[in-house]
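User: Structure please.
Assistant: Input sequence and predicted structure:
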Amino acid sequence: MAVSRRSFVATIGSGTAGLIAAPLLNWRGHEALFAQGTPERQEDRLLASKPGMIRIDSNENPNGPGQRVFEAVTKHFGMSNRYPVKEPNDLVATIAKLHGVQPANVILGCGSGELLRAAVFAFTSPTKALVAPEPTFESPANFAKFLKHPVNAPPVDKKLSLDLDPMADASKGAGLVYFCNPNNPTATVHSKSDVVAFVERVNRASPETTILVDEAYHEYVEDKSYGSVVQLAISNPSVVVTRTFSKVFGMAGLRAGYAIGNPDTLKKMSAWLLGSNVNQLALAAASVAVVDAAHIAAEQKKNAEARAMTRKFFADAGYTVHAAEANFMMVDVRRDAKAFKMECVKHGVAIGRQFPAVPNYARISFGTVAEMKKAIPVFKTVLANTVSTSH
């Protein structure tokens, strides 16, 4: 039976979502709802998903995956009744070739979220802390706390960049350092030379500490000093790099990610992964998405256009945006960010939640240009009507 795009999507929405989504412990696109475990967060996400809402709250790609992904998933749908056998190896081989590494240097995850949790399991303990700056993507710290493992959380600096000196100091004797670059939620980025120097410093002071560099937003960075440290992860067994298909590839709901590192280091993480952790359809989708250079370039261009327009509005209005090296940015709205968010929701625009460490900063993901043209007047109205508060 032929399956149209419309009927395929309808089928997913009406009952097959669990097959495709396969949420294992955590899902990055929906911001670690399970990890936080709070009814308030669940209500927040349900509110954002109401019909007609402009959803720029969870750093998702508003355009979705490319045509090649749709065709691959549709073609592979007949294999949904089978456990993956050869397909994971095929995807690993494709990723390895793309990065110029060996298949033994790659492991797959149900999104990069599963890999982050596996790293916390593998490298932290009641006596080996996790170092995760504040604020950053919360899933690793939340999971470490769940395990009752200590967490050291050096605050970001005044421009919301990761403060590498305090992070290095906190890393002495730690089990794992979580280095999100670009950082979520601050959209700040560190140069490749900064990351390499940081790793060398931690290696000298604490040789048993593992550094996980999360490059989820790698493709969106425009800063010329930035660079991936995948090759460092191959040569240095204390470094692991994670990537996800949830962002530029537009596959947040399909759940696929990968880690690159030394085989012995990855084996420690693999012990905490489930078998068949990436489903048949996600494997098919990821295999074509990761090599679709034209689609990646198109998504980068679309994001850059929406980013420039949104950033210009806030800058022209006198609001501080320190960086936007991702598909989102943080804006100092000079008032309580939660109150600002809820006012935006009343006007049909859902933005990111408040982060306690920076309570006056609102995180805004970039939607399509058309969506941002609708969202910007809402921001203007809310900023004009909401009483400002001092820092």
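The CA atoms of residues 84 and 280 lie 6 Å apart.
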